[in-house]
Structures are given as C-alpha cells and as structure tokens.
Amino acid sequence: KHPIIFDTDPGVDDAQAIAIALRHPELELLGLTTTYGNVDVEVATRNALLLAQLAGRDDVPVAQGAASPLVKTRFPPPAHIHGTNGLGDIVLPEVQGTADPRSAAQFIVDTVNARPGEVTLVAVGPLGNLAAALQLDPTLIERVKQVVIMGGSIREGGNVTPVAEANMFNDPHAASRVLTAGWPLTLVGLDVTHRCVLTPAHMARVDASQGELERVLAGSYAFYRDFYQSFLGIDGCCPHDSCALAWLLKPELFTTARGHLTVITDGDAEGQTILAPEGRAFIATRWSRTPPVDVCLGVNGNAVSDWIADALS
Ligand code: BDR
Ligand code: CA
C-alpha cells in the first residue's frame, strides 16, 4: 500500500481522483489537504469533507490550506468548467464533519515526519500548500518518499494560456519553489492528461443509482463534459487529476524524461514549465541549474483511461 496525502482543489476531476484515493485497495489515504483553485478554499474543503462522507470514509482528515497565491493576484475560479460549487452545480447533501484544526501545511509536515521515508505527496491543485510546508520545515525534502504533481506542460501547450497549465498558472511562484526543491518528484502534465479521455461509455459504468457518491461523480461529469467539447473538441473529459494516481500505481503505462524544470513566474508566459533534458549541455547554463526531476511525456491513453474508469466503478 502507498501511504499518500492528496492535496486538491475539488473540482470535478479532483472529485474523481478523490473517489479513487478513498477507495483504492493499494492506497492508504492519510489525509486530504485543500487549496483554492477550481473554487474558493472553503468550498474545496466542503467538497473534500462531503466526498469522504459519501464514501463512508469520514475517518480521513481534511485540512484546509491556501486561500490565495503566494505573490500574484488571484485568478477568478473557472465556474464555467467546474460549476460555482466545484461539482457541476448539482444539488449536494449536507456535510456532517469538520476540518482538522491544523493548516494543510502543518498537517503535511506532521504526517510526513511521523512516517519518515514512507509518505507520497500527490498534489493536483495550485501548489501553495506544498510551498508552505517546505517553508515550515525545509528538511521535509529528506523525509518525503516522493512527490507526484498533476500540472505543467512541456510540449502540449497550455489550457489557461497558450503556454500555461492551470495549476502552474494559478500560483507560479509556489510551483517554482516546489518543482525545484530537490525532492524526488514526477510531473504528470497536459502532455499525458490530454491523451486520456473519460468517455460517456466509461461513465455509464459509474451507476448513479448505486449511491450518493456515484450520483455526484456522474452529475458533475455531465457538466464538465461541455468544456471539453468546446475546448478540445472531444466527447468526454480529461481526467487530469486521476492521472497522477494512475502514474503512482501503473507507472508502466507512462514514459518519462529526466531533466531540469523552470517555471516562468512573471509576464505573458507566467506558469509555463520548461524542461531542459538532463545531460544536454546548454550554452546558457541557467536552464540546467535546478535539481533534476522526472516528467511524464508519453502515455498509453486508452489503458490509463480504462484503468481510471475501472477504479471509479
Ligand atoms: C488541472 O486544473 C484544474 O482545473 C484541474 O482540476 C486539474 O488539476 C488541469 O489543468
Ligand atoms: Ca485539480
């Protein structure tokens, strides 16, 4: 079993990934930490608590984190993609539980330090919580097992600007700190998530009559699908955040490259992620100074999409 902390801004595709994290037999979900991004952080926390409750997993702690980016002015939540409630504007049941009293960053520090070398951080929203955890305890990089991040794009282009992926664009300064901190890290970005499609046929297997969690997953999917029709011209949607879990449990379905990442923090290209492949000696050495990381560049999209659909149903 992989002990994980799942850092998230739910969000329709986050909700799918959370459902997998809560139920998959090979994952031990130690906690959900929340950030603004697809929605305000209070809404993200409410959704995380609700999803855990609907899965019968209210034993899983939820700790609230970043309400805004480290430096830049906050970009408004994309209500046309995720709905104003983050879950496709479907009617939601009442939440019973409450959040952990600790901040997300403190929760991450405490949990990793209690199990040195064991915990994987999976982050699928803007990276303010991981940046804050590093600030609280810079030695964390020695005790985290690995960090898996959904975000960025090397060759695919962006989804918020022509060059920037949403999680990087929402807090490029935090992303820069986290991606260059020197911990074992894999980036799962648009280069692979745009090759994966959760189709209506896949979602038909998630039977909304089975229970409230299935109703939320099916209902929010129906809303999210419209964006992918207009943005990518596909029938279905990209299960970005679940791809990070697919990488963790099924790495053989991906190909990676190792190299040095730079996140552009200002100007028209803010949020762009640039990879300098390891071993290539660029004349301008600033492009190869950051500690090396692994970046997913290729994927068996059909196999990953089928794996996600299986894990959801
Ligand atoms: C990422 O941005 C968010 O909107 C999604 O939840 C995902 O984490 C995709 O660019
Ligand atoms: Ca997300």
Automatic annotation (TrEMBL):
GO MF annotations in UniProt:
hydrolase activity
Cite the entry's keywords alphabetically: Glycosidase, Hydrolase
Which stretches make up the Inosine/uridine-preferring nucleoside hydrolase domain?
Answer: 4-304
Q: Which InterPro entries match?
A: Inosine/uridine_hydrolase_dom (IPR001910), IUNH (IPR023186), Ribo_hydro-like (IPR036452)
Name of this chain's protein: Nucleoside hydrolase
Q: Which organism is it from?
A: Halomonas tibetensis
Cytoplasm as a keyword of this entry, yes or no, is no
